[in-house]
Specification:
single chain; about 5% strand; 5 strands; disordered N terminus; alpha/beta; 15 helices; about 325 residues; five-stranded parallel sheet
Length: about 325
């Protein structure tokens, strides 16, 4: 599990140490047959943060300058933009000549044949250059619907590593780190309570984001830490949540916080409201005041809408989980 680009690898993820050695050992030469490095596992396992941590380690050790870090949707969008601008040749050259390519949520290229073909070409070119490619998926490549056989074949030609949700040891360390960020003092009993929160359920393992949520709930309950610490933490969560949502939906922060009722803006605003409610102890009314003094019923409706969408729309559920993980990785929670 991750905390500021540190991956807490319990027994369930012991292989992670080998990945770090692989990145280090390949510094003196091409990455060879270990690229692409495919990290797969369930939501909340820390794939995105681990991919970025490994990439940053390699970038710093090799002082790389040509690094591309993107997501499946952004990869497809950037290609479409290049086609519209008649700059595909430049776009191709950039991807074929980079020293490091990271694509998060590759499964979201499903049923996008043009983007997949572009990626196949890039993978072949980068393989010849000895450049490292890191991708993340929710499932094995061959189990991911909508990927072409040619792309699946390229992905399986590298190193495929399954990541597991954190076990008890990793969850305890995550709880300690989350508490440290909040300047909270957790005793062993409280740490154990967080680490074992799901032990009686069929979903035995907790995601890193959920562990952080539980620690934040302890802080918000006033059992731990002074009140002003909680207020400062809430402000940090609100600011970063709105910023990340605005970035994802390509909207100005002012629009998300503003009074516009355009559907696209309202949808993005609803996600931001849901994140703030989920990650802080703020009431619906308090959240509403952050968004141009909206009524608490508006916030309630928006949050319930997002919850309903998450239960039926995998993309929305994945997006929310990713944003929670990002907020944690950046220190907002």
């Amino acid at each position: 599990m991750t905390e500021r680009n540190v991956f807490f690898a319990g027994p369930e993820n012991a292989l992670i140490r080998s990945l770090v050695r692989l990145v280090d050992e390949s510094i003196s030469g091409p990455i060879g047959g270990n690229s692409p490095l495919v990290l797969y596992g369930p939501r909340g396992v820390g794939k995105s943060a681990l991919a970025q941590a490994l990439a940053e380690r390699r970038r710093q050790n090799l002082t790389l300058e040509s690094v591309i870090i993107t997501t499946g949707p952004d990869f497809a969008r950037s290609l479409a933009t290049a086609v519209e601008a008649d700059s595909v040749a430049d776009h191709r050259a950039r991807h074929h000549r980079c020293d490091l390519l990271v694509i998060d949520d590759l499964q979201r290229l499903a049923n996008k044949p043009a983007a997949q073909q572009f990626l196949i070409s890039a993978l072949d070119a980068l393989q010849k250059r000895g450049s490292l490619v890191i991708v993340t998926l929710n499932q094995l490549p061959q189990a991911t619907a909508g990927l072409t056989p040619a792309l699946v074949s390229r992905l399986l030609g590298g190193l495929v590593v399954r990541l597991a949700l954190p076990g008890p040891l990793a969850r305890r360390e995550l709880a300690r780190q989350a508490a440290s960020r909040l300047n909270l003092s957790l005793d062993e009993q409280e740490i154990d309570r967080v680490a074992r929160a799901n032990d009686d359920s069929t979903d035995h393992y907790l995601s890193a984001g959920k562990v952080r949520e539980l620690v934040l709930q302890l802080a918000a309950s006033h059992e731990l830490g002074p009140q002003e610490q909680g207020a400062q933490q809430h402000k940090a969560v609100c600011r970063r949540a709105v910023s990340l949502v605005a970035k994802h939906f390509a909207l100005p922060v002012s629009d998300i916080r503003g009074k516009s009722r355009r559907q696209a803006i309202a949808d993005a605003r609803g996600v931001a409201m849901y994140l703030i409610r989920r990650l802080t102890a703020l009431s619906y009314a308090e959240v509403g005041r952050l968004f141009s003094n909206r009524d608490h019923t508006t916030v309630l409706h928006a949050c319930r809408k997002v919850e309903a969408q998450m239960s039926s729309d995998t993309d929305i559920r994945t997006l929310v989980d990713e944003l929670v993980m990002q907020l944690g990785a950046e220190g907002a929670i």
